[in-house]
Design brief:
single chain, mainly beta, 9-stranded mixed beta sheet, 5-stranded antiparallel beta sheet, 18 strands, 42% strand, globular
């Protein structure tokens, strides 16, 4: 399938002090992907591609993995700077099974954003103006914005071609990216998320903001190389004065070296 990317390079990570929020949670490969060899992935949080905070195994709500039409059974293990995920190819490898799609849903957690961080946090989220207004008002009134966030991570990695990988098939997460012809589509409960801010991040080109079209799609900017991260966050204001904001986050890691 054109528009997907092959030969994902391994990322090199260094540990750094943890931060409370405004950093992505994402997948990366721990080494090159090769047919028949065990697949090693890592999960962590930080300023992509730098992992600064490990994700604890007890924060994982659901893990799903697929190679073509075959479901895989990943195993998780904790590490000092990242969560490690391992999986094996199925015993019989279909001719077009050239890569894997892996998804992890994390359990919800509570965060707080104070007056010094609120503007930066709204920029990181890509929140629309009406949500920013509500958030600032809550912080002015209460001194803090309280939020329940849920993060959903996804990775697509290919060996030589992504033919047969079925990257357009969703796993059924509340918010997730899927392939859509030459574009990437953001789905919310299985439906296109229209007019949503989506960020594209690479080590060389930095972070760029896009907006989904009427079909929930974004086209990647030309000239991207190496590992890239797509990310989106849907922030919903509280229903009442004693309720919290809620947020759904989705990230997708892939490689843009081969288009």
């Amino acid at each position: 399938m054109r528009g997907l990317c092959a030969g994902a390079a391994a990322l090199i990570f260094a540990a750094a002090p943890a931060t409370a929020f405004a950093h992505e949670s994402f997948f990366a490969q721990a080494g090159p992907l090769a047919a028949g060899r065990p697949i090693r992935l890592i999960l962590g949080s930080g300023a992509f591609p730098l992992v600064e905070t490990a994700i604890r195994p007890d924060r994982v709500a659901r893990v799903q993995a697929r190679a073509s039409d075959t479901l895989l059974a990943p195993t998780l293990s904790g590490g000092p700077s990242a969560l490690h995920l391992s999986l094996d190819w199925p015993g019989t490898r279909p001719p077009h099974q050239n890569g894997v799609v892996v998804a992890v849903d994390l359990l919800p957690r509570n965060i707080e954003v104070g007056p010094e961080e609120i503007d930066h946090y709204m920029d990181e989220v890509g929140a629309p103006a009406d949500i920013v207004t509500v958030a600032r008002a809550v912080v002015a009134r209460d001194g803090v914005m309280r939020e329940i966030e849920t993060r959903r991570l996804k990775l697509m990695a290919c060996i030589a071609t992504c033919d047969g990988l079925a990257p357009a098939r969703p796993f059924g997460s509340t918010l997730e990216f899927v392939a859509a012809d030459e574009a990437w589509q953001l789905l919310e409960n299985g439906q296109p998320r229209v007019g949503q801010a989506v960020f594209v991040t690479t080590a060389m080109q930095g972070r760029q903001k896009l907006t989904t079209d009427r079909l929930g799609r974004v086209l990647l900017p030309a000239g991207l190389t190496g590992p890239i991260l797509l990310s989106a966050a849907v922030l919903t204001p509280p229903a009442g004065p004693n309720d919290r904001f809620t947020s759904e986050w989705a990230t997708l890691t892939l490689d843009a070296s081969v288009r």
